[in-house]
Amino acid sequence: MSSPLPPPVSEASLAVPPPDAVPGDYRIRLEMFEGPLDLLLHLIKRHEIDITDIPIARITAEYLTYIQALRDLDFDVAGEFLVMAATLIHIKSRMLLPATVEATTEAAGEDPRAELVRQLLEHQRYRAAAQELWLRYEVEQGIYTRPAPPSPADEVNVTVFDLLETFKRLLDRRRQQLEQVLAYDTLTQARKLAELRALLVAQPRLNATHLFEVARSKREMVCLFLAILELLREGTVRFVQAEPFGDILLERLSPPVEACSAL
User: Fold this and answer.
1) Structural domain boundaries of the chain?
2) Burial label, 133 (beta-carbon count in 10 A; 0-12, 13-18, 19+)
3) 150 phi and psi, to 5 degrees?
4) Reduced to 3 states, what is the DSSP secondary structure of residue 256?
5) Multiple choice CATH, 150-263, 3.40.50.620, 1.10.10.10, 3.40.50.1000, 1.10.10.580
6) 155: nearest Cα among 249, 241, 239
7) Element (H, E) at 181
8) In the chain, where do the E strands start and end?
9) Under a CB-based contact definition with an 8 Å cutoff, are residues 16 and 229 in contact?
10) Which of 17, 101, 119, 233 is the most buried (most CB within 10 A)?
11) What is the mean pLDDT of each run of 10 residues along the chain (263 residues)?
12) Which residues are CB-contacts of 243 (< 8 A; sequence separation ≥ 6)?
């Protein structure tokens, strides 16, 4: 019998704290980082993996590194992500253990990944259908959103998961340096948000990768990550990437509000 998996989840947004959150408390509740199935689909797409033949050991290792990155951001990781982590480890163990004669007879031809693949394919169809329904609704209601500026043909689609990957990579590289910063760093998300808005007034594109590289503490990296999410949520910026695995850029879509009020 196939191992039970968590049900498909809909895309959801981060519970981003208010910009004026208490300076000494920046732990954030992660309701769903889009969802564990979305993260798996992101990893599969990023590595151009056949969804019906997932290298479970590799995907499990990468999935767990993303969970650790969320914890480095001081997110309270939602239970769905932990359940999926346990499920991946269970599938990996089933594929590594030698099958007994009885087990082989009982589950002849059964792939331990089959149920996971079924849910991933179902989730893909669900998201595609939801997007189609929303587009139809906009047409029927006469809703017209502000179109994004034209992009060069060679630009790459970037997601929040790519931003998380950049955060994870740079934090790992600079962890020892950042841990030497004094503990009384009181930088807030509100201040970082105001700094980004002021920079976006002066220039239409910011290099997010560079901003993480020059951050002076882990706290500043966390506040920067949350400030970027807030700008995305309010529609002020969008992600741009000129080439696969290149630097992530923030492109201004609308004039930033309250650009300098909190500086």
Assistant:
1) 10-145, 150-263
2) exposed
3) -60, 140
4) coil
5) 1.10.10.580
6) 241
7) none
8) 28-29, 75-76, 205-207, 237-240, 249-252
9) yes
10) 119
11) 40 39 38 71 89 92 87 72 90 79 53 91 86 74 56 60 86 74 69 93 92 88 90 87 83 67 45
12) 154, 156
Report the amino acid identity of residue 118: R
Torsion sign over Cα 51, 52, 55, 58: positive
Q: What is the pTM of this model?
A: 0.64
3-class secondary structure, 204: coil
Cα angle vertex 184, ends 178, 185, to 5°? 55
- Write out the two tokens for 153: 């043909």
Instruction: Sort strands 249-252 and 237-240 into parallel, antiparallel or unpaired.
Output: antiparallel
The greatest distance separating any two alpha carbons of the chain, rounded to the nearest whole angstrom, comes to: 71
Distance CA 88, CA 69 (A): 18
Contact present, 232 and 163 (Cβ < 8 Å): no
